[in-house]
């Protein structure tokens, strides 16, 4: 198969068929040991990371949650959400073994043969809640991203047990369950600064009414400088909780058009503010652009949990935020409409949030 594919690598239909339809993903291309990436993955120069704009002197805050009861930690969390939109947490209560298990499960899923993985593709999956794919939105992208993913939308324990792939479902579910406490703790802290005294049932639906977990796989790339793992974007979530492996490659937009690397810290979780919380906080908390570079020497995995409003919720600046007469910057938007807008186009930086601006 490999020689035939190398001969036909310039044929876009063959690439799409091999990567997407046959279920081999970008991982299948990587394993063919191509000397150069197919043209479909070459990004325009403006979408590749410019090394001269990477700032090594800056880093996002690392926050120890062991002393969460004290005012200092709460202040650090809120300050980081306002300035950076990103921070890392340690001593967060999710056991290291759970984190290691879900990373291993991610490698197990992507090691499956193409015919197994394609059972979960858009065309073949038994549920919209389970989706294996490549890049982001291939049908809308001019250039593809060098990434495969398995996306798992949590509906119920029963559905997950029945429909999620057996090689990773237990580990993914355990990681989600064990992360619920730190997610709630973070949201309670962030809400207090917005004058929200408690997260009642209505606020819970608005802030964390749905969850999605992705298993991401970034294979070794022959020309990492010509493509991207993930293009510039901000998340549409309330919060994202990201587990990195030890390879690195996540970059966050800094000040003055710079990029700041988020170094892997063993046992830590990367937290970032999503568009939904930026909107609900009326711009006080920042949903920041970020991206992932491709890697020429190592396969990388990451496992984000996207903590989202319930799809049927209407999001807009919270009443508590506007109590003092602050003018709303965003209109009221049905969250499911906001998400559809995000997924119908290629990654395009912070443009999605414009959809909600007044």
List keywords for this structure.
dioxygenase activity, IPNS-like_FE2OG_OXY, eight-stranded mixed beta sheet, oxidoreductase, four-stranded antiparallel beta sheet, 358 residues, alpha+beta, iron
State the secondary-structure class. Answer: alpha+beta
Overall mean pLDDT = 88
Query: What is the overall shape?
Result: globular
Give the strand line-up of the largest sheet. 1-2-10-7-12-5-4-3
Gap from first CA to last CA: 53 Å
Number of strands: 14
Fraction of residues in helices? 25-40%
| Main beta-sheet strand count, sense and barrel state | 8 strands, mixed
Number of helices: 12
H-E order:
HHHEHEHHEEHHHEEEEEEHEEEHEH
Determine Rg (CA atoms, Å).
Answer: 20 Å
Q: Can you tell me the residue ranges where pLDDT is under 50 for at least 5 consecutive residues?
A: 1-12
Strand content of the residues, in percent? Answer: 15-25%
């Amino acid at each position: 198969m490999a020689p035939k594919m190398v001969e036909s690598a310039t044929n876009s239909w063959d690439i799409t068929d091999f990567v997407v339809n046959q279920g081999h993903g970008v991982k299948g291309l990587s394993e063919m040991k191509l000397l150069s990436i197919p043209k479909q993955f070459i990004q325009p120069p403006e979408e590749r990371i410019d090394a001269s704009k990477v700032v090594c002197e800056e880093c996002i805050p690392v926050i120890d949650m062991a002393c969460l009861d004290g005012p200092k930690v709460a202040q650090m969390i809120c300050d980081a959400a306002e300035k950076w939109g990103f921070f890392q947490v340690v001593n967060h209560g999710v056991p290291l073994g759970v984190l290691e298990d879900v990373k291993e499960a991610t490698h197990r899923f992507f090691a499956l043969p193409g015919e197994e993985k394609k059972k979960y593709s858009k065309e073949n999956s038994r549920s919209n809640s389970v989706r294996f794919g490549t890049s982001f939105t291939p049908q809308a992208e001019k250039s593809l991203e060098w990434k495969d993913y398995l996306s798992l939308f949590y509906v119920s324990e029963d559905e997950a047990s029945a429909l999620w792939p057996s090689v990773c479902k237990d580990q993914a579910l355990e990681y989600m369950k064990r992360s619920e406490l730190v997610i709630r703790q973070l949201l309670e802290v962030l809400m207090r600064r917005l004058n929200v005294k408690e997260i009642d049932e209505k606020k819970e639906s608005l802030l964390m009414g749905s969850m999605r977990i992705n298993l991401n796989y970034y294979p070794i790339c022959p020309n990492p400088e010509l493509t991207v793992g993930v293009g510039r974007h901000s998340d549409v979530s309330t919060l994202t909780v990201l587990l990195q492996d030890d390879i690195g490659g996540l970059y966050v937009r800094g000040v003055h058009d710079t990029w700041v690397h988020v170094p892997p810290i063993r046992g830590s979780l990367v937290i970032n503010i999503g568009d939904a919380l930026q909107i609900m906080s009326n711009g006080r908390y920042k949903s920041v652009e970020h991206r992932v570079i491709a890697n020429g020497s190592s396969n990388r995995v990451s496992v984000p949990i996207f903590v989202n409003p319930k799809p049927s919720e209407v999001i807009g600046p919270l009443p508590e935020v506007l109590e003092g007469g602050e003018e709303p910057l965003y209109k009221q938007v049905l969250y499911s409409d906001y998400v559809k807008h995000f997924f119908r186009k290629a990654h395009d930086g912070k443009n999605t949030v414009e959809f909600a601006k007044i």
